[in-house]
## 1
Amino acid sequence: MLVEGKEMRSLWWDDTLKLIDQRKLPFQLKIFEASSVEKVAYAIKKMVVRGAPAIGCAAAYGMALAEDKEKAARMLKRTRPTAHDLFYAVDYMTENEGRIEAAHRYVEDIVEKCRKIGEIGEKLIKHGSRILTHCNAGALATVDWGTALAPIRMAKDKEIFVWVDETRPRLQGLLTSWELKQEGIKHAVIADNAAGYFMKEGEVDMVIVGADRIASNYDVANKIGTYEKAVLAKENGIPFYVAAPISTFDESISDGKKIKIEERDAEEVTKIFDYLPPEIRNPAFDITPAEYITGIITEKGIIKP
Amino acid sequence: MLVEGKEMRSLWWDDTLKLIDQRKLPFQLKIFEASSVEKVAYAIKKMVVRGAPAIGCAAAYGMALAEDKEKAARMLKRTRPTAHDLFYAVDYMTENEGRIEAAHRYVEDIVEKCRKIGEIGEKLIKHGSRILTHCNAGALATVDWGTALAPIRMAKDKEIFVWVDETRPRLQGLLTSWELKQEGIKHAVIADNAAGYFMKEGEVDMVIVGADRIASNYDVANKIGTYEKAVLAKENGIPFYVAAPISTFDESISDGKKIKIEERDAEEVTKIFDYLPPEIRNPAFDITPAEYITGIITEKGIIKP
């Protein structure tokens, strides 16, 4: 991805693990250093790094940094429950005795898969398309290229326009806006409430989002609000694509109902306003049933649920 | 409505017009004084007062305060385009030569209609119901009782629970939370993105919202995001009610497509984050087609579109 005109990744190895601190963006570009598996676990839990593929890559390096690999695996798997890549990466590293070369290979593989997702997905984007995306499934979330943003990056000469849901509560839409700005791709940020409005007005040609976990019947767990946008897309006859590497598929789960939804701190919702309601509920993800998904763009082609 | 245990209204006449400043709530209870039609116009435009019926009441007093009634009518009608009550109230005052007694009558009539909406709507609420509402259609928006909140207020002994959409960009859900807290009604505030999730989880029994304008085919203009929640309610088999006085119906408009949607300042979206995307789009309302509406609760009964 481009950052201030230079090629950069969201995390890289430099004797220790270095990560763009996503809690500071888009306000400040700051690098977080994780020199131990404990620091990597902290970075995942506190969302210094976020996005399922990037979490997997950080965890791979966390395994490489650890002395006690079994303890490290347990610690890392406890950080966040939804992203399937996390579990996939930790198991892969266990099979490879936690070697740093295995972590490098894992990361290069993710980057290559995302590039491939971009190539495959780009073909779906017509000249002048207006594409809506939710949350951030960009290079920040996947080390490079992104999943949902990979096809968009590759289609940037097609005079496209991107509608960016601000994505409350954590406003990851701002990360997407920051990435698109770096690439010079035209876009507008909107309140999540306005996505349906622009769909109904005929101003959205397609939707592309990422995924945190995909059940074997193709139900998709992704950032809270994804389900809402999928229902609205279907209602308005707009294609709704999910872009994700095959590592996101969890064959052990038959359908979305069996995916445990993480509920995060109330503070994520309340911190933009200085008022404490008697109760806050803050589910971080939701499930989009396969019936609302036009296709899942993977590195191996497009899967039609 | 109860405010700190005492009965209060959102606006009242005390030689001049006094209004609860809704820009300061729920953080601070402050009274705004409007001693001229210019100040009333300012209060409507800047959303010191908001909610279609309350805007109408403020405008009625604005007409009473003015020397030049024709000029006042033009000024008030230019403040905000969506709320039908505004135009209805100004025309009513013009017919009554802008007399203060007419303004009082107008306001008492609104309060009585809202009370009646509460009585009629309360019968739709079963014991233990979990009701979702969007934006604030409470006493703040209507001088007293509210429209969507009137049935909820009257059902408060039925062990109900209210899901309150935070309602970005302006977060009027916090006004709803503030009102419900004053009345001791159990509720939780959620990100707008989570409304669909809780519907799909079977945790929402019904939806009640207000309306800014209703076309003659019963399409409803209301706060941005209302359309999204209506589609999701239908998808999940949840009754979706609109509560509004008859003055909200605009017989001159055949359907929702002909209602002009106000687009407000980008700053409403950006002010919670200190980052400026290249573009912000901020439609303040959307249209909910009649097909998604189970019933419109009015002071004269329930209209089924």
## 2
Amino acid sequence: MTLPMAFVGTLQIATPSRWFECAAQQWQDLLVDHANCEKKAASTALSLIFTYSQDMDLTERISRLAREELRHFEQVQRLMHKLNIPFKRMTPSRYGEGLRRAVHRNEPKRLLDLLCCGALIEARSCERFMGLASLLDDPLRSFYQGLSASEARHHELYLQLAAARFAETWRDNLNRLASVEAELITASDEQLRFHSGMPIL
Amino acid sequence: MTLPMAFVGTLQIATPSRWFECAAQQWQDLLVDHANCEKKAASTALSLIFTYSQDMDLTERISRLAREELRHFEQVQRLMHKLNIPFKRMTPSRYGEGLRRAVHRNEPKRLLDLLCCGALIEARSCERFMGLASLLDDPLRSFYQGLSASEARHHELYLQLAAARFAETWRDNLNRLASVEAELITASDEQLRFHSGMPIL
């Protein structure tokens, strides 16, 4: 698949087709992992709200994003219920931890990194939802189509927050983190997850 | 003030009038602390969702509650903006930490305790919003009136979750924690906060 135009400035590579083929086959596991991803997205957003509480423009917009992530979490759970997919504990993919390792510890670089990571994760999620929607049937097809639009908005929000606060440096920094992201997506992964790399088969 | 009937089985004492008098005078500081309380309520809810992720009924209902807490957080921030109240960092009151110390570390008692604490905090918040609404003018009066209705629903939700999972023990346990809560509310506090005890003047 080719990279959607909206993410050409953000993501450096498209997800390999093989990930989509495996993911479409293992859609049940992917849905359970997806519920975890929505929870984690809400949790990351809340953590930004606590850490940068003096930036009331950021906290307002990120709070709305967190609410949307939680609504998606509820929607995934309802879909699991409808499709008879039981809950199970799943280990997270290397992706989140891999990105976190590339985040600076000191401010203000840390905030910029966190916003860039947010943009990258949302862009990747959007790309994968779009690709999955084209391979799956309803109700997953329309669910993922709807979600891809939200993720595109979230990607845009993170970029806007970064650009407004780090006009000079955000672009270079995004590129630095995007190459870490591209490595995580192309490296081999034993377990298939929503943000995993190349499946080992 | 007398305890609202809805909380007679939950809270053991009414907030002393002097707290309301001081709080109405220091409404600006209270609003800043209130924003923190809404954030913390959302964070506590999210933590329940992560810890008890296998209980999909609980996570669904608590996720909706978390979204509501975040919406309230946004509303408080907008009110701060409208009333020209700048952000400032504030130390939390002893209340949250005091309740947390009374929570069991081992399951399943821990879950029951957390749900009972949730019910107590929401009931106390509702009682205080009702009292404050009667002492303040608009826009705070109608804002607090509206919030008191939400807190009453949240109190009810936490009790329902506890009663459905711990039919035999929830009542006694609620009473145990309610007496801890009553102590925290009646002990003297140097700093006025939304959940502080008796103001020292």
## 3
Amino acid sequence: MTLKAYGEFDLIQRIRERIQGDDPDLVIGPGDDTAAVRHTPGSLSLLSTDTFVEGLDFLEEFSSWHQIGWKCMAANVSDIAAMAGRPRFALVSMCLPDETEIVAVDHLCDGMVDLARQYGVLIIGGDLSGTPGPLTISITIMGEVAPNQVIRRSGAEAGDRICVTGELGGAEAGLRLLQASTDEPLNGILPDDYANVLSRHRTPRPRTEEGRIIADSGCVGAMIDISDGLSADILHIGKESGVGIALDASRLPLNTAAARTASLLEIDPISLAMNSGEEFELVCTVSRAQADTLCQKVYDETGTRMSVIGEVVPQALGNTWLHGNTTHQLNAGGYDHFRK
Amino acid sequence: MTLKAYGEFDLIQRIRERIQGDDPDLVIGPGDDTAAVRHTPGSLSLLSTDTFVEGLDFLEEFSSWHQIGWKCMAANVSDIAAMAGRPRFALVSMCLPDETEIVAVDHLCDGMVDLARQYGVLIIGGDLSGTPGPLTISITIMGEVAPNQVIRRSGAEAGDRICVTGELGGAEAGLRLLQASTDEPLNGILPDDYANVLSRHRTPRPRTEEGRIIADSGCVGAMIDISDGLSADILHIGKESGVGIALDASRLPLNTAAARTASLLEIDPISLAMNSGEEFELVCTVSRAQADTLCQKVYDETGTRMSVIGEVVPQALGNTWLHGNTTHQLNAGGYDHFRK
């Protein structure tokens, strides 16, 4: 059954049932002019919004609706993680073409709710609209953080180490594999590698717990999550902090499955690690003396590897990456919505 | 110049300059992973989101981009007014087709900012995306309210009077006039009427101040703003409160210019008042003994007329509207995004 047969208010009711949940700080949930929430006294509210357009940000051929919903919510939760915050509440707007299947909306909501529940997030409102264009999902997330724990992009200092959680390249490798496989089924990829990079592309896991440990350490100056690609996102830290960035390609934690995928697809593995977007790993700058200790601590407490991949330098030294004995200029290689 | 010639990050920078402003409670503004704000201690945060799609919710032929921006922000502010809250901060997501003129984006932002500034709202973040579909604007607004002042849809009681701020019909009359005038210029409309109904359609003014006075009175059980039309919106109060609604058509405060427009266009004026959407007037239920006093108080303090238009009845009596000596069943006649 498609939306055409369904009224707006019936669909709202159907969605409300799927998203429902409790939170002691939720005073008014979906169904009034606004939602109303209480705050942890003294905390700051963190607010961010991210929009996803079918055909640009996701494809029905590459992911299930459940996975699409999961990933849209994950991208928002990741922004809260990048501020070292605790995600709390979300609002979801959807523009739905007439021919959208009701079951697709069901699965989309279920995917959002699954990610949200695992991260302590409750969907408390939203908006539905028709559209003659592509299905579009816009999520606004609200989190909270103690004022002395929030980590901005602007706190990096020359001499700091640059660290990254997890591994890189998997999300882009998964996407490339799907793109390559639409022409003909791809041989030569190991089943485990296939599952690994596809899950990195389809169902990323934001690093909220790692972000909290990083904030607790008190030795981190700046942080961002990798949504556009490491090269683009680390340069945001450089710009906002007024410093230069020096990455060491030999230290990039390239995902092994991504490396084998890159080899199969004849993609440069370093470029993959540098520019893979939607990784949702955290990049942070850590005072030199404490970087190794923090990496160990994050690993011990969460099982997530954290690696030193470079250092912050004075702005006059520019932005570079070292490959073998050669130093290259570091440019943003990530995704830009308007320049194609 | 169109967006194609512009990069995403240049456009973000351009927009940031247009929206910038200060608020003592804004700790982190646009340009980080999230914004961060402080709260008035003990207040509740009100959160709501509204999406607007070109071709469905607005037309470039009918309004300037400045007016479109104004109205999108007004609709969001109105939701805060409907909870008797104070609007504070907004996040704006825009999906922009490649061929969008940069100057259109400028005017859109200026319109949002103009409305926002007049109502004490600061834009603190957002997201930009391309789209192969229509230009789409999604705004999330955050407001605040003291817990004992918030007014929900669910507090109406049988015996309460139903009151509405301002006048009705103007927004729909303005839209109808624009629709009629695209075929041939319309004769017979007075210039003042034309200006009046067009401004009601294009640049509505949310009733935040009236909402505050209504909340202060302590005698209002339920409130909603008119976005889908009086008939649809008052039935939300009825449903959420478990009561019936009895409107009196003779008491509807029909906008005089709208009445003359209705006559010219051969539209039923009562239907116009009942179903005109995007009026952004407040409808509330007031204890019987205090309704007239509250109407007078709102008028004295704001210059906005407030009228008694019916009463809340036991649910068993159903939903009705009285016209002359005849009682009709009251049905939602407003806008539904999926049923056309």
